[in-house]
Design goal:
five-stranded mixed sheet, 38% helix, 2 domains, five-stranded antiparallel sheet
């Protein structure tokens, strides 16, 4: 006759029982369809209360020092996504817990974005100068590094005043064209961005620029 599984009894004096209880809080899903569909090893990536462990994803990906969950969550684009998800979901979108069995956890939508981030191959990074040079060449007759009392304008055409920046520095670009525009009020202000970002994030930038009568263009790195 098969023996019934022993009950787990909570006791302050039993470290083994406490450890087992903590482990029981997690769901180990080697057949987790959501994870499997994205080639995420369910046997190595935990869920807790339905949320996926970003720390496990990071470990599975080789623990890259510059791509830790906390660092990724601090990025402006990630914060924008978190706020967007939080407006749709009543419960926590992400949380962190310290300790031996802790980690950073997130809802599926956020976790899968992190997995994509971990598995994105590094691209050849464009420099601001190289993008500026290429854009100036494509525009034809332009002036570059035009001096003003506030600084140098990247590109000045007969119609436009253009500031080139990485998408991460878009707010700096906006501030600069606003200031430079005072020296050339007849020119259309424009920021030209380069780098990776989500469509929603670009929509946010475009809407903010439109409110200030600033045009936005972008090229992928």
């Amino acid at each position: 006759m098969p023996t019934a599984a022993p009950k787990i009894v909570s006791t302050q004096n039993s470290e083994t029982a406490q450890e087992f209880q903590q482990l029981e809080l997690f769901e180990w899903g080697s057949h987790d369809k959501a994870l499997a569909s994205r080639n995420i090893p369910g046997s190595q990536v935990r869920r807790r209360k339905g949320l996926i462990c970003l720390t496990d994803m990071w470990r599975v990906s080789g623990s890259p020092k510059n791509k830790t969950p906390p660092r990724w969550l601090r990025q402006e684009q990630t914060q924008f996504l978190v706020q967007s998800l939080q407006s749709q979901i009543q419960d926590k979108v992400t949380y962190s817990q310290r300790g031996k069995y802790g980690g950073t956890f997130a809802v599926d939508e956020l976790a899968f974005k992190y997995w994509e981030y971990l598995n994105t191959k590094p691209r050849v990074r464009l420099s601001e100068k190289s993008v500026q040079k290429r854009l100036a060449k494509s525009l034809g007759k332009v002036k570059c590094e035009v001096p003003t009392l506030a600084g140098n304008i990247d590109i000045l055409t007969e119609r436009e005043l253009i500031e080139v920046k990485s998408v991460k520095s878009w707010k700096s670009a906006v501030g600069q064209v606003m200031i430079y525009g005072q020296s050339y009020p007849e020119r259309q202000k424009r920021i030209h961005l380069f780098g990776e970002a989500s469509p929603d994030f670009f929509s946010l930038i475009r809407s903010r620029c439109a409110a200030l009568d600033i045009e936005m263009s972008w090229e992928k790195s």
